Amino acid sequence: MSELLAFDQVTAGYGDAVVLDRMSFSLEAGKSLAILGRNGVGKTTLLETLMGHTRVMSGSIRWNGQDITRMPSHRRARSGLGWVPQEREVFPSLTVEENLTVVATPGPWNLKRVYELFPRLQERRSNYGNQLSGGEQQMLAIGRALMTNPKLLLLDEPMEGLAPIIVEELALVVKLLCESEGLASVVVEQHPVLTLSMTHHAIVLERGQVVHAGHSQALAEDTHLLHGLLGVGQRPQPSRPSMDAPAGYTLLPQGA
Ligand SMILES: Nc1ncnc2c1ncn2[C@@H]1O[C@H](COP(=O)(O)OP(=O)(O)OP(=O)(O)O)[C@@H](O)[C@H]1O
């Protein structure tokens, strides 16, 4: 598999404040990566740095065969980085359908396929962004990122504030997007066990540095390490999401 994304000794932050400290990691095409760590360690800043919203003081970022360290953010957004921001940023005065079509870029993902993935959005197609529940807004934020036909989906705490049933459904969708569609993803989350169950690889951050990198499954099974790194994993954890499609979701046919 070829390299899709690599941070090489990246030091970055806001103004003079350093948040990411010589950070290195890489991601292969079609793979998923969990970014874990306690509050304030720099997880969101990592995504913001990839999108070009911070000041990079040293190091380099390679994306899809190109050095993008100095590339302006508006060009990165159009280069196949499908960003689902923490605040979702759904357009409140546009309908669901307008939210989706306004960002549409030619490619395999279109309105029909997003509605197949999220039938709930089709039901709500004429509702305005500000009339949606939190779960529906998150589906719309993911659907909107897919409409840009990304090579990589960047999800910043996609499960935050959502009901457990919606969290499980969204986790399954993200996992399926990777496994059936070959779409790479980077998932920043506060739920380590769930996030490890959805991803191939994981890195754990502490004070802007990578303190652990490895396979997600291995970390999920090492409760002692998980507890030491994140303060979780000593008690029985929720099971991995089932690979059966939850009610209301349509799995996309392979290669469709
Ligand atoms: N726009 C900003 N300007 C200045 N400092 C910032 C800014 N955004 C974040 N920071 C600081 O950068 C550090 C890392 O924050 P970041 O949001 O990246 O952490 P995080 O791991 O995503 O945390 P959380 O899990 O709480 O969202 C914090 O000390 C935070 O105060």
Describe this structure in words.
Helix content is 33%, strand content 26%. The chain is an alpha/beta fold. It has a domain at 87-150. It has a six-stranded mixed sheet with strand order 6-7-8-3-9-10, sandwiched between helices. Strands 2-1-4-5 form a four-stranded antiparallel sheet, covered by helices on one side. The chain is globular and about 45 Å long. Adenosine-5'-triphosphate (ATP) binds at residues 14, 17, 19, 37, 39-45.
Mean pLDDT, to the nearest integer, reads 88
Shape: globular
Briefly note the structural class of the backbone.
Answer: alpha/beta
Number of E-state strands: 10
End-to-end C-alpha gap: 22 Å
The largest β sheet comes out as:
6 strands, mixed
Q: Ions, cofactors, ligands: which are bound? A: adenosine-5'-triphosphate
Which regions contain 5 or more consecutive residues with pLDDT less than 50?
234-256
Order of helices and strands: EEEHEEHEHHHHEHEHEEHH
Region (Disordered): 234-256
Organism: Parazoarcus communis SWub3 = DSM 12120
GO molecular function: ATP binding; ATP hydrolysis activity; branched-chain amino acid transmembrane transporter activity
InterPro entries: AAA+_ATPase, ABC_transporter-like_ATP-bd, ABC_transporter-like_CS, BCAA_Transport_ATP-bd_LivF, P-loop_NTPase
